[in-house]
Amino acid sequence: TKLNWIFYSLPAVTAAVYKQWIPNTNFETSSNWDKGRVPCARDVVHFEKDKVVSVFVRSPHALTDMYLPLSGEFVLAAGAAFTAFDGSWDPGCDSGGTVRFADAEHHAWFDPTLWQDVLPSGELKAAGPIFSVDEDRVPCRYDDVVFQPETSFRVNTDSSQPVIHLRSISVMGQELNTPSSWAGYLGGPSALLQFHGNGTLQVTGTGCPDKSGCACGNTLDGPRICAALLRASGRQCPEPACQSPLQPLGHCCRVCGATINLDFTADFDLQKYQDKLVRELLSQPKYAGVQMAISKVHKAQTFLGIVSRSTTPLIQIVLIDDRAGGQAGTAAEQLAADIMESIAQHGETLGISSGKMEVATGSTVSGQVGSHPVSSITVGTVMGLLFSLLLLGGILFLFRKGKLR
């Protein structure tokens, strides 16, 4: 049988973007081997025959024997090589054995636990008061994706959408940020070994064009995201400490705390508003332990209890805290009240036309606590609807009395 193996030598390069893939298939990663250690000179290395894999090799290795699959590649860094063990003594490798490469097929694109936020410098983003709902933890359609330099990987792109849009993808330190550069990479030998599944990755090179924010675009794969998240956490959501917890859009598990849904105008700027909330409210000592997620979402419209196919864009703010027991969610509730008060006073200048708050704490039952229209347009619309209903009712009354034909 022909072995379709390719060996490459690559220079060391660097790259950095926004959401970074965590797993790798590097030869020197201990967790990639069934013995929990990198093979040594007396070992027999065994790759499963029918498993396709790309493996980055950082340094030279002496081995007793190695069984390769029918299709795959070694990507060799400068100085990396394989040599046959010459029988000399190797410290730490007194007794050899068979060491098998782990199965990399199960690493799924839509698993939030396999991604981490990074800064443009490539450093991990420091933990802070801002978090993301679960659908936003996987790369969104305007995000940059990075696979770390000097790493190999294999990722399953199975998806409920035929195309997964992204702003850019960096592989081996090379940023691919145009449709043509990405198409060229897909035509190369490595892409088929790194990506598998029914979802097609597509690079657009464009960021979110709307200052009010853009929806993530992972809604269709929400069930897939939640299934992966629950597999990693024991197959069930933690039991919230409040009686009727909230279910934020795009989040897998219900939470205690508060949600605020904002209707907005053309003047709303999502990033500026988030910075304002962090600077003026979240940074206060009394809100230490409170976390906030803010993003644009699309909520299904309902009429007389019937869910419509159309959706309404709105800004969702999710507030949770680290309080326990009867105090669970109470700090988040207080922050939500402060946000609503700010909206009532300054909402129109911020481009916010109305806001609705819901809370669920360890001492209260969830429900709509406040709803504040803050623009004359919203009030005028409501008054117009009421006037139209009254007019329609009057016409119907006159028709039934025979006064109107």
UniProtKB/TrEMBL annotation:
Localization per record: Cell membrane
Membrane topology annotation: Single-pass type I membrane protein
Record-level GO cellular component terms: apical plasma membrane; endocytic vesicle
A Pfam match: Amnionless
Domain of life: Eukaryota
UniProt keyword annotation of NAD present: no
Keywords associated with the record: Cell membrane, Membrane, Protein transport, Signal, Transmembrane, Transmembrane helix, Transport
One Gene Ontology term from the biological process aspect of the record: protein transport
InterPro entries, per database record: AMN
Regions that span the bilayer: 377-399
PANTHER family linked to this entry: AMNIONLESS, PROTEIN AMNIONLESS
Name used for this protein in its record: Protein amnionless
Organism whose genome encodes this protein: Cinclus mexicanus
